[in-house]
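User: Quick sanity check before I run a bigger batch. Here is a single chain. Can you write out its predicted 3D structure?
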Amino acid sequence: MSDDPFDVRLDDLPASVDRAAVRRMRFVARVLDDSVRIPGTTVRIGLDPLLGLLPVAGDAASGVLSLYIVAESARLGVSPTTLLGMLANVCVDVIGGSIPVVGDLFDAVWRANTRNFRLALAELADADGASSRTAVEVDIE
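Assistant: Done. Predicted structure follows.
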C-alpha cells in the first residue's frame, strides 16, 4: 500500500477479506474526508466539514455516516480494541466538529474516516498473519 490511504491494492489483502466491502469503506471515507478540492489549492476536504456548517444536525449526520466504516469493519472481523479506537475517532470528530467555526476547520484536519479506514486496512491486511502462524507443542517431562 502507498502513502495515499485510498490507494488500496486489493490483491495485497488476504483472500478472506470482502473486497466489495473495502471498496465501499474507501468510497465513504473519501466522500466524507477528501472529495472536494478547494479551488486554487491542492487542499481537499470532504462532506464532513461541509455538513458541519449546519449547526448540530450536520455534525450528527456526519457522525452517523462515519459509523458506517466502523460497522463494516466489525462485520469484516476487525478486533474489538480497534473498533473502540475507531469509535473514539468518530466521537472526537463529532465533538470537535460541533464547536462553532473552529469545529469546521477541525473536521477538515482531523479526518476521522481516513484514520478509521487506515486502522481497518492495517488489521485486515494482517488477518492471515495471525491465523497462519503455527503452534509448536513442547512436551514437558
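Residues 57-76 form the longest helix (20 residues).

User: Great, the batch can go ahead then.
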